[in-house]
Amino acid sequence: MHLMKVIAAIFLLSSAARAAEYGDLWKFHKGAPPQKFSIGSHQSVADLLIQLGPSGAFVMTVLIKDTRATVADLRFDSYALHLFNIQSLPQGTLFSAEISRKDTKAFVHGLTSALEGELTTDGGAKTQISLAGTSSAVDALNAYAASNDLALPPPFTPNRPAKDELAADMQALTFMKSAHPAAVDEIASCARTSTVRLPKPISPNDMKQAFLACSEAREAFRMLCAEGMPNSACLGAASAVFLGFSGG
Predict the structure, then answer these.
(1) Long-range contacts made by residues 44-48, C-beta under 8 angstroms, separation at least 24?
(2) What are the φ/ψ torsions at residue 237 (nearest 5 degrees)?
(3) How many CB atoms lie within 10 A of CB 201?
(4) Residues 244, 248: Cα–Cα separation, whole Å
(5) pLDDT of residue 2 exceeding 70
(6) SS3 of 106-138
(7) Does some domain include residue 155?
(8) Would you place residue 14 in the very low, low, confident or very high pLDDT band (cuts 50, 70, 90)?
(9) pLDDT tops 60 at residue 1
(10) What range does the record give for the signal peptide (predicted)?
(11) Same domain, yes or no, for 126 and 169?
(12) Residues 63 and 176 in one domain
């Protein structure tokens, strides 16, 4: 991400957001091209901007309106983010940090689950950051990602065409067989155990009950899989393992 483009985006966002002083302070902005979208907020203590970085992970950029600031940390609910000092500017100090792909779900949850976050700067000084509008901004991004088929880290899932779903599920299954073979084996074992005594042919209701009996194994599979793959593909891959070993 080019530094001057980030700075320019923050100040464009600032002027646009002043009109929302008594409404939602966080707004979603479409991008051109689509992957240049942003979620941002203009507040008295800082301008905050969330964008997609070159690596495919989200990047949080914060312009703290204090030229003396040298360190900064953000906390949204239970999620803490250490910000790195990028540059001192006449308007304040620019900080930035990348949210790893595996942490995106926790970051989004923290951002949308509380009314306020907390910004800590030099000497432990703490300032409240309003999170008003974060839920609607994230919902807007989710819909935008689906309509533009953007490959974002979980919990965002692109709206893949139906013909691509099976390929994505199989990709997730291949990933799990390599990265977490024990989770694959656990579902397979549960499928065999749950269906071995069922009459043949197995009725849809019998299969449903067997499927539900393996919910714990499937959820463990899904959580491990979602660390590196889209959640919808992980659900499909878990079902594929179950059906492949259930005799259904």
Answers:
(1) 45/119, 45/127, 45/129, 46/92, 46/119, 46/127, 46/129, 47/10, 47/11, 47/13, 47/14, 48/129
(2) -65, -40
(3) 9
(4) 8
(5) no
(6) HHHHHHHHCCEEEEEEHHHCEEEEECCCHHHHH
(7) no
(8) very low
(9) no
(10) 1-19
(11) no
(12) no
Last residue of a domain, one of 118, 147, 176: 147
**Does 167 share its domain with 142?**
no
Q: Which residues contact 52 (CB under 8 A, 6 or more apart)?
A: 35, 36, 37, 58, 59, 152
Domain that holds residue 11: 3-147
Residues 185 and 140 in one domain: no
**What is the Cα–Cα distance from 119 to 130, expressed in whole angstroms?**
10
What per-residue confidence (pLDDT) applies to 220? 92
| CATH code of the domain containing 107 | 2.60.40.1880
Rounded to two decimals, the pTM is 0.59
Residue 158 preceded by cis peptide, ω within 30: no
pLDDT in tens, 131-187: 999 988 998 998 888 888 787 888 886 555 445 556 788 888 888 998 999 999 999
The verdict on 175 and 140 lying in the same domain is: no
Of 135 and 6, the structure prediction assigns the larger pLDDT to 135
Q: How many domains does the chain have?
A: 2
